[in-house]
């Protein structure tokens, strides 16, 4: 028997079959024979499902840019910057070509010189560290906190030397690093703070007095990425910087556009790093949905948390009391060396998962010259062996969630 639809909740067995390109999961109904139920293919991020929802608005935004032919620095770029400024509660948003450039531009305007030290986490996407290395600054890696995955405040304190000039906390997976403590350390040692908020567009940092600021607007400069899979993603590359400092903003704007103040007059040595007008127009549409989408991700995370509450082999993501969590990723820690086996099992059911991040940065070939060795970051290395990110996006359907969670629980029931 084949049943198409999501309108009942049978006892799912972790079995799937594909018919005419569709994923069918095998279920049992009490007192019944096997049946197969249609379920939309599970994706880590389902941009197609999102486009099905907001497509007409996106199409008309793109069409209006095509008709205007204002592809570079068109009106949508400025409008998007203003709308994002309002949303973020920050004085300046400077858009640029991608999140890596945003970090690069931030480091450029701080006036840090080659040889100066920049402290950041060893557990992040490569972009955070590569810009430091590219500018000839000395990269000082530290372990994250194993609970929140974010840079350890104690580790920062231990890494500070007279040459330290900046700290780069990354708000990993959608949750803020401990910014109040980090800003305190920075003030004590006269250091800059550049927040890498690429994975945390919309996260609130909650100060000890109860006040809130958006991730990326607390340090001297914040950066973000609009890579398509990000919580606020465009349909290509894009990025932005946040700052409350007028001088930094002026300089960032100039450097991102060839160092140009007025046409063909150059005050700074710059680069070409601009957000395309088409991407800005898309982002204007998607910004309107950001809060709704982030809330939908939180609902998915709550369901995962509840489903895995009794599963001793899994550690669900820790939620810090000083931050909201917008779940760019929902990342479990899998105990007893079972991570890879679980991943393979889920793959066999067409449930995608990802390992963010599979290898610590200090052991990457490109960073050997930093002089770190195998045993230097035991915490980071063990996280890299344990973490597993599950499908997470605002368009997830209940039958997909049931299938993912019941499959994971059955995996552990089977091996125990
Ligand atoms: C933490 C972090 N920093 C920086 C970046 C770089 O952003 P982009 O891919 O837009 O250059 C990313 C994105 O992928 C990221 O996750």
What does this structure look like?
- The chain has 416 residues and is of the alpha/beta class.
- The protein has three domains: 1-39, no CATH class; 48-285, Aspartate Aminotransferase, domain 2 (3-Layer(aba) Sandwich), CATH 3.40.640.10; 289-415, Aspartate Aminotransferase, domain 1 (Alpha-Beta Complex), CATH 3.90.1150.
- It has helices spanning 47-68, 75-88, 99-109, 126-134, 153-159, 179-189, 246-255, 277-307, 339-348, 378-386, 398-415; strands spanning 2-3, 11-19, 22-28, 34-39, 92-96, 117-121, 138-142, 164-168, 192-196, 204-206, 212-214, 221-225, 239-243, 260-262, 265-266, 314-315, 330-334, 387-390.
- A seven-stranded mixed sheet has the order 5-13-12-9-8-6-7, with helices on both faces. A four-stranded mixed sheet has the order 1-4-3-2, with helices on one face. The protein has a three-stranded antiparallel sheet with strand order 16-17-18.
- The radius of gyration is 23 Å and the shape is globular.
- It starts with a strand and ends with a helix.
- The model is unreliable at 1-14 and 28-32 (pLDDT under 50).
- It binds pyridoxal-5'-phosphate.
- Pyridoxal-5'-phosphate is lined by residues 98-100, 124-125, 127-128, 170, 196, 198-199, 225, 227, 237, 239.
